[in-house]
Amino acid sequence: MLSSLVKEHQAKQAAKRVTQEQKRKECIAAANELTQALVDHLNVGVAQAYLNQKKLDAEAKLLHQGAINFAKQTQQWLALVENFSSALKEIGDVENWARSIENDMKIITDTLERAYETTQGQPTSNK
């Protein structure tokens, strides 16, 4: 009788161990699933932040390149305006030179006419 009680007790304990082992495995699996779900939830936010950062970096590079191109274009425009300004100054200088030559020629012409009048004795009308 005692041996049958011991065997029965050992059988119950073995069954409890099997049940406990099964529940322990289920608990470990549930904990793994929970951990995985939490990590996945966090990774979604991190992945979204990473994608946003990549987009921002790409936009920043495009903006930087656009700024460089704009600076180059601005320098070209400034050079063109400077050249145009210099050309206008040169035209003004040529115009002043031409007026100066014209005035000198008028003076020479008037002087020659007066000299001619004086030598010929015939007055002519002054211009």
UniProtKB/TrEMBL annotation:
**GO BP annotations listed:** endosomal transport
Q: Bias regions of kind Basic and acidic residues — which residues?
A: 1-11
Which GO cellular component term is one of those annotated?
A: BLOC-1 complex
Region (Disordered) residue spans = 1-22
InterPro entries, sorted: BLOC1S1 (IPR009395)
Give the similarity note: Belongs to the BLOC1S1 family.
Protein name (record):
Biogenesis of lysosome-related organelles complex 1 subunit 1
Organism source for this protein?
A: Parnassius mnemosyne (clouded apollo)
